[in-house]
Amino acid sequence: IVDDNVKKLKTKIHGVPVLGTLKDLNHIVKKSRIDEIIIATPSANASEMRNIVLACETTDAEFKTVPGPKEIVDGKVEVAQLRKVKVEDLLDRNPINIDLDQIKKYLNKKIVLITGAGGSIGSELARQILELQPEKLICLDRSENGLFYLEHDLNQVNSQTNYTTIVADILDKNKVSRIFDENKIDIIFHAAAYKHVPLMELHPDEAVINNVVGTLNMVQIAETYHAEKFVLISTDKAVNPTSIMGATKRVAELVLQSYSAISKTALVTVRFGNVLGSFGSVVPLFQKQIARGGPVTITNEDMTRFFMTIPEAVKLILQAAKMSSGNDIYVLDMGEPIKLVNIAKRLIKLSGLEPYKDIAIKTIGMRPGEKIHEELWNRDEVPLKTDHPKISSAIGNHYNHWDLMSQKIAALVEMAKARNTNGIINNLKRIIPEYTPTDGAESQRQLKNTKNILVGQ
């Protein structure tokens, strides 16, 4: 037994001696030839857990943790069960709490629509909202595959709420308008978007059409059908953007801010960083690379990202939605940024392997549009506290002139429809002066065009 409580040193617990503290762990493991370490501190916060795991990682032993009190109370596991330490355990913050009863009251008798419902955030929104039992839940996505799996998950939720899944595209204004007309929707959570940075560098026209035009369509339809509230799910990549994806998401934020001047629907933006385990994100990619025997690829050893689990991000989205009366940008507290190389190392260790020895970590260079460090606040924004300690409001220049913004967006969309990449970039710069495209993006697009020509011949 190892314990940091010095009063327990040189004592015995059920006849087993306490040999030292955490700093003695490596020595004790070697001396006693320990094969496996069991972390029996289920109430440890994330910072404490991180220190324990770091100490375990200095040894050659495997390590597991006992489940936490919530997992036991919820009936998900028994006390006797052990599990591998998960990367979520290493996020440097305590679990986020919200008043679910207040959210449930807010959603009572409301008809809720989620766009992008088959995606990572959209599907978790659907699960949590269904448990809170609004009058009706409508899940919209153009991915039939995503909706198929979502239906399977929602069928497991114990709820009295009726829900429906609809295959539809946010660009199809006629169909979406009919959905609003038939359902009298109160609240919209707009999670539909293109999110992959390198792909959108190669397809800037699609990023503009989907992320900007799609958002504008949904906002205008929500206003036409007298929806109460519209919540845009945004990203830290919209802050001082260097990528097409980030720039189009920033324009989507500005659509809401400027349209608020003429809208009776409350328009709200919720901005946050990466979520652990989302489709196509870094953690599942690392896990696949480890399962194949490596190498694990990173683009830059200094690269950091903000991380949050999907369930806690969705909880804060719901809290922000309840708090806002309109024309707000809320930013979620993501904790401290984490180096991606450290996540790679920990995932390798959690797989019972040794970084650089069993699994190589290879630096492949930054991809077009990527930043080394993401940000949560634009240069002109100042964080303002709200009633929730984990949610801040972004106070900065408010864009309240829809007439002017609509003209700029029309010019941008015209370039997107013409597939004029230089025109798209120039118009994005006019709308977002802080947008600074990365140097590698243009060469990447030229390479794509060259490949397309060769294939065409």
Detailed description of the structure:
This protein is of the alpha/beta class and 457 residues long. It has helices at 25-32, 46-57, 69-73, 100-107, 120-131, 144-154, 173-183, 197-202, 204-224, 244-259, 282-291, 310-323, 340-350, 402-417, 421-431, 440-456, and strands at 12-13, 16-17, 36-39, 62-65, 83-84, 111-115, 136-141, 162-167, 187-190, 229-235, 266-272, 274-276, 296-298, 304-305, 307-309, 328-332, 338-339, 361-363, 382-385, 391-395. It has a nine-stranded mixed beta sheet with strand order 8-7-6-9-10-11-16-20-19, with helices on both faces. The protein has a three-stranded mixed beta sheet with strand order 3-4-5, with helices on one face. Strand 1 and strand 2 (16-17) form a beta hairpin. The longest helix is centred in the middle third of the chain and has 21 residues, at 204-224. It starts with 11 loop residues before the first strand and ends with a helix.
DSSP E strands, number: 20
Q: Which value, in Å, is the CA radius of gyration?
A: 24 Å
The top level CATH class name of the largest domain: Alpha Beta
**Major sheet:** 9 strands, mixed
Shape: globular
Question: How much is the average pLDDT?
Answer: 86
Q: Count helical runs.
A: 16
